[in-house]
Write a structure and sequence with these properties.
33% of the residues lie in helices and 25% in strands. The protein contains 17 helices and 27 strands. Bound molecules: alpha-D-glucose-1-phosphate-6-vanadate and cobalt (II) ion. The site of cobalt (II) ion (CO) has 7 residues, from loops.
């Protein structure tokens, strides 16, 4: 086996964002581009030499090619064994599960998550540490620094490795284990949820469900778990075949992109329960018949009902949510007398809290929920949690959520995304808010008075690390909030996100339309940021 030491020069744009390095496929396919980044990972993680690496991706275009390149680099960099998902397929939570279960030195996950795939679309790569979670900022910073000074990478001359047949092979001194993509993950789910009870729910014949895998990675996972193991009728899983271009769709499980599922649920005789997951299987959308559960409410409801589910029946230690996520979970934590944490956007910030046993459930408003069973958000886990809950409580999704609102009050919540905006225009809007931060406090807008306005910064309570510039926020004195943030996952132009929240205690007013309930605050946001003026857009691209 010949090992080449290939000369290279750095690329200036290899800085990981909210979740790994995401670029157009064309960028990744430039000579040396992927190789430089992967070598930077090997260089800053010396434990991978002689160690075990987990490798897999969401099956998007370039996935297989990238895996072969990484395998050749792994041999050349002295990795002892690589665990690869069959066909190169691993959902993000399944990769996290494998990294932890087989006490490995980390993993490389290939995905651009909810971003579209195909030759003209997006690709991504992310390094996860031995705890199974996305590398913290310190590590991604080191990788980026290394990528900026790289001069060589190491790659072996070996034929392509068969990824489709499970089993063990060797390549020179390195072992390669091709593993079933679903087995270990399904076993983990069995250890947390009451499979018999969920099975009975499907057998009963009065309950029906639809799961939209959006032609992305969760297809095989959902089919195995929902249809094979839990006995849901064939066809429960729709769009279950992973495709390299996600069937030309946008694998983002929200009301706009999972439209077929939403249409199926919004009929009088539609399924009782609907759910969807994203490109890499870490997001979830939860629907009841003619009812949408906001991700923020979902986190709060799961926390308040955790005692109904075997894996959490002994109680949860704490709840963590990202800053823009609604404060609905805070009310549950308060009532339960447990800690509640507010972290910056991105799952990597939950890692320390989970490792330290201070948080059991975590959530993000961006359709992300999970627990300490892995160190990533986990789409199917959230779906099974809901299913377990529906089986135990025997009520509809809508009734469970309405009941929750009656007990805790309702946090009306929406996010408005302005996608593909000119970078300078997006920054102009952000700057307009930033300039007012000092003068906003005490200012009145209609019925709302600003109690605090700042640029969110976070000090990790476990290791003391500080993350700054994590979003601009205006908090009003009755718990209402506005948050302005630029996305860190996009690959073209800028995406400006506006997050809006208001608390309503009165059950008589819980059935208002969300956009109407929040209209005065949406107007205030425009007054403060002038997003429409700066971008020339008269409406957001996506409202969730
Ligand atoms: C978005 C979401 C964030 C999420 C991230 C990765 O980031 O807002 O909550 O963690 O995507 O999700 P941003 O920087 O674009 O707002 V995934 O499913 O794409 O790994
Ligand atoms: Co994702």
């Amino acid at each position: 086996m010949k090992i080449h030491r290939v000369q290279t020069t750095p690329f200036s744009d290899q800085k990981p964002g909210t979740s790994g390095l995401r670029k157009k496929v064309k960028v990744f396919r430039q000579p040396h581009y992927l190789e430089n980044f992967v070598q930077a990972v090997f260089d800053v993680r010396p434990s991978l030499k002689g160690g075990v690496l987990v490798l897999g991706g969401d099956g998007r275009y370039f996935n297989r090619e990238a895996i072969q390149i990484i395998l050749r680099m792994a041999v050349a960099n002295g990795v002892a064994r690589v665990i690869v998902g069959q066909g190169g397929i691993l959902s993000t939570p399944a990769a996290s599960c494998l990294i932890r279960k087989y006490t490995t030195q980390g993993g490389l996950i290939l995905s651009a998550s909810h971003n579209p795939g195909g030759p003209d679309e997006d690709f991504g790569i992310k390094f996860n540490t031995p705890n199974g979670g996305p590398a913290p900022e310190k590590v991604t910073g080191e990788i980026h620094e290394r990528a900026c000074e790289i001069t060589h990478y190491r790659i072996a001359d070996i034929p392509d490795i068969d990824l489709d047949t499970p089993g063990r092979t060797t390549v020179g001194p390195m072992g390669v284990s091709v593993v079933d993509s679903v087995n270990d993950y399904a076993e983990l789910m069995q250890s947390r949820f009451d499979f018999d009870r969920m099975k009975a729910l499907f057998q009963d014949g009065r309950f029906s469900m639809r799961f939209d895998a959006m032609h992305a990675v969760t297809g095989p996972y959902a089919r195995r778990i929902l249809e094979d193991m839990l006995g849901a009728p064939a066809g429960t899983v729709m769009n279950g075949q992973p495709l390299e271009d996600f069937g030309k769709g946008h694998p983002d499980p929200n009301l706009v992109h999972a439209k077929d599922l939403v249409d199926a649920l919004y009929t009088d005789d539609g399924p009782d329960f609907g759910a969807a997951s994203d490109g890499d299987g870490d997001r979830n959308m939860i629907l009841g018949r003619q009812f949408f559960v906001t991700p923020s409410d979902s986190l709060a409801v799961l926390a308040a009902n955790a005692h109904h589910v075997p894996g959490y029946a002994k109680g949860i230690r704490g709840i963590a949510r990202s800053m823009p996520t609604s404060q609905a979970a805070d009310r549950v934590a308060e009532k339960m007398g447990i800690e509640c944490f507010e972290t910056p956007t991105g799952w990597k910030y939950f890692g320390n809290l989970l490792d330290a046993g201070r948080a059991t459930l975590c959530g993000e408003e961006s359709f992300g929920t999970s627990s300490d069973h892995v160190r990533e958000k986990d789409g199917l886990w959230a779906v099974l949690f809901w299913l377990n809950l529906l089986a135990v409580r025997g009520e509809s999704v809508a009734d469970i959520v309405r009941d929750h609102w009656r007990q805790f009050g309702r946090n009306f919540y929406t996010r408005h995304d302005y996608e593909g905006v000119d970078v300078a225009q997006a920054e102009a809007a952000m700057n307009q808010v930033r300039e007012q931060l000092d003068s906003l406090k005490g200012r009145r807008f209609g019925n709302f008075t600003v109690a605090l306005a700042d640029d969110f910064a976070y000090t990790d309570p476990v290791d003391g690390s500080v993350a700054e510039d994590q979003g601009l926020r205006a908090l009003f004195n009755d718990g209402a909030r506005l948050v302005f943030r630029l996305s860190g996952t996009g690959t073209a132009g800028a995406t400006l996100r506006l997050y809006v929240e208001r608390y309503e205690a009165d059950p008589e007013r819980h059935d208002q339309d969300t956009q109407e309930a929040l209209a005065p605050l949406i107007d205030i946001a425009e007054e403060i940021a002038g997003i429409r003026t700066h971008t020339g857009r008269d409406a957001p691209t996506v409202i969730t």
